[in-house]
Amino acid sequence: MHRSGTSALASVLGALGLDPGSADGLMRPDVGNPDGYFEVESVAALDERILRDYGGRWDIPPLLAPGWATEVGARELVAELRATFDATFANHRFVLKDPRMSLLVPLWRQALLDRVAVVVVVRDPAEVAWSLALRDGMAPLTGLGLWAAYNRTLLADLEGLPVHFCSYRDLVERPRDVVGTVAASLAAWGELDGEDLDAAVARVRPSLRRDTHPATDPILAEPPSSVRELAAALAALDGRHDHFTTTVPSPGWWEGPLLDERRVFVQHYERALGERDRRIDELVNDNEAVRRQSEELRAELVAAHESIIEYQDVVRVLESSRAVRISRAIGRGPTT
Question: CA-CA distance, 272 to 291, in Å (whole number)?
C-alpha cells in the first residue's frame, strides 16, 4: 500500500545488492519522499495505465471479474509488462517496487513466470490514512478503505509464492533485526549472494517516519472493526513464508460502497475536467482564428495605408506639375 514505507524498504533491498533499476529511470525525490521512491517511472506509468484500462486508478481499485487476468486482452498486457521489465533490468537479482502492483499481481506473476519472491511492508492503517489525508486531501475513512482494498487484494493473489512480511514500525525502530530477517529469507530463496547488512541498515532513517495520525481524529483513533481485524491478520503473518497461503478476512460492509462512491465521483470529476479542457481547446482555437484574422486585417490596413500614401504622392506630383504649367503661363503674359 502507498505511504507504507515501500520506498524505505526498496532502498534497503537495493543496499542488500538487488538492482532497483538505473538511476535515470527512477522516479525523482520530492517533498513526499525526500530520499527518493526507488520506483521505475516506466513501470509505474504502465501499471497506472492498466488500472485505468480496467476502470480504476491508483486511488480507486478497479472492479475486476474472476479470471480477469487470463482473458485475451490481458495477454497483451502481460507481454507489455514483460517488455518493460526486460528493458529495465539486466540483472536477474532485482527489486521491482510499485505499490500499484498490489492490484495487478496476477498479471505480473505471468509476466515474470512466477519466478519471484515478495517482500511486503505493512504500516498501521491509521498512519497510512493520515499520510494520504495530508498529501492528497483524502478523507481518513477513504484512506482506511483504500488500505484495506490493497492489502486484501494482495493477500488473495500471493498464494503459493515465497513471501516475507515485515512491519514498517519495526523496520524504523529495530532496523537491524528486520533487515537481518528479510535478508535471511531472501538468501534462503536464492535471491541474495552475500550482502552488506550494515549498508542496508544505514538506509533506514527514523526521521522519515512522518505523518503519524493525531489522537484527536476519532476515525483514526478507532478504525472500523474490519480494518482492525485485517491489521491483526497482517501482523500475525510477520516473517517468512516459503509457500504463502492464508485466509483473507472479509471486508466490512462499508468498504466496497465507499470506494464505489469515490469511483463515481472521480469519474464525474474527470469527465468535467475533460469537458473543461475541450472547451479551453475550442477557445484557444477560436482565439487563434481571431488572431489570424486580425493579422490579415492589419496587413490589409497596412496595404491600404501604403496605397493612400502612393496616391497622395501622385496627387502632389500632379499638383506640382499643374502649378508649374500655370506659373509658366502667367510668366509669359497675355498673348496678342
Answer: 28
Query: CA–CA separation, 37 vs 6, rounded Å?
Result: 8
- Condensed to tens digits (0 to 9), the pLDDT of residues 95-119 reads 999 999 999 999 999 999 999 999 9
pLDDT digits (tens, 9 = 90+) for 187-233: 999 999 877 899 999 999 877 676 677 767 899 999 999 999 999 99
211 in Cβ contact with 130 (< 8 Å): yes
Given 226, 251, 276, the domain boundary residue is 251
State the residue range of the domain holding 50: 6-251
Q: Are residues 196 and 284 in the same domain?
A: no
Question: For the chain, what is the domain count?
Answer: 2
Looking at 87-101, 117-131, 211-225, 271-285, which range is the least confident one?
A: 211-225
What pTM value is reported for the model? Answer: 0.82
Residue 1 domain flag: no
Count the alpha carbons within 13 Å of 262 in the hemisphere toward its beta carbon: 22
Task: State which of 225, 251, 277 marks the end of a domain.
Answer: 251
d(CA 96, CA 84): 12
Strand ordering across the sheet containing 163-167: 118-122, 163-167, 239-241
Q: What's the CATH number where 113 sits?
A: 3.40.50
Cell of 121: 511492508
